[in-house]
Amino acid sequence: MKTSFEYRSYVVSFDGAAYRADSSDGEPFAIRSRNVLRVTRAIDALWNALEGKIPAPTWLHSTANVVDVDAASEAMVVVDRPAPSAVPCFPIAPIAAPMQAVA
Question: Which of 10, 52, 76, 102 is most buried, judging by how many CB atoms fall within 10 Å of its CB?
């Protein structure tokens, strides 16, 4: 079964093995990955580079019509996590104050 949806002028479809994003305006460029989040982040990176917000990723300069972002050297990380701290931090439990008698 083939399913698809549109995201930022790209039609993202799943064929059972991988997701593929094809331009909705007929451009021959396509983005492919086994992870849908990686495809949508690649589309975001493409638009941000075209708008001049970020430098163009190296996979954008590929001469291939289909770019596999799973194989790209700077493939997008799929999990949103804060950058690890250089100094470890541990949660501190509240310190119980000694009970005092009320007169």
Answer: 10
